[in-house]
Amino acid sequence: MVRNLQQQTHSTPEEDHDRLSQLFKLHEQIVIYEPVNIPEVFGKDPDQTVAFEVALAALLATAVLSVSISVSVLELGSAIAAILLLATTVVRKMILDNSFIDTDQKMQKTTGWMQYLMILSVIYLAIYITESVFAALLGNVLLVSAGVLTLGVLTLMFVYEFTFGDLFFWAAVKFHNLAVRDDLNYFTHGLLELARTMLAISPQVFNEEHPAVRKIRYQGFRAPVRGSKQFTVSVLLGATLGILGFGALVTVPLLHLFGELSILYTVLAVVLLGGSSLFLQSLLQFLLSRYGNASFEEVSGLREDILPVMIVLSVALIYEIEPVIVSFG
């Protein structure tokens, strides 16, 4: 009888893991839903954060000031932007070290401008790479630059994820926190599903006992709403297309008028440039939040989503229009 009792109470490690997962699931379903504490989870040291910003700004500025392209207005503008980028990081270091001013407010104000200057620097470098390497083989510089920028940003994101393994986790936390700040509804259920999807597609193996992983995996899991993830993806995609459409209303006619591309390839170039600017913005926001001194809570919004698109499309317009103006002059 004792032997039978021992056999009944004995369990394999796999069974123990399943029971532990069930306990985690039940716990996260009955506790109050609350956002994941991102600074605590990712563990930034405030004294070291500006060093990353300075290093990244120096890398981009040095690259921009070391190369030249065929459009003089963009070359001059990018050189000024590179100098302003270096100056911005110096000012942010001074703000952080000054105890007599409102550090948080001034750091938040300069974060956005630092991102915009970095985006301008990256698109300039993409044009330089295209003019130097690909244009002679593949044709129109603007269209090829759009492809180079899109492919380059996506490649950097996946290389980072496979190397360091926390980009998709960060995205999952952001989706989860956005969902639990409001009452659960069709849209926020979809955000919770997206958060779990980001964990699932990450190549990293996460510790199921980690509080943040438990929240993402199991909060809102008890009553999933069918189709909510598809609905939320549709809303986010619609918002993205709306932002791109806003920029394309002016850009497509002017690029088609002054450029050499057909209307179809002009639209394709604008979509690729606008989309790549959003990917680039997301990557920079992650890096500046993860390793820099940007706020973990609020680094995006409608203005922050529209301005990168307008910066990149404005660069495209200048690139196509300046040679026409020079030829008439």
UniProtKB/TrEMBL annotation:
Membrane spanning residue stretches: 76-95, 116-135, 141-160, 231-257, 263-288, 309-328
Source domain of life: Archaea
UniProt KW keywords: Membrane, Transmembrane, Transmembrane helix
Protein name listed in UniProt: Uncharacterized protein
Species this protein is from: Halohasta litorea
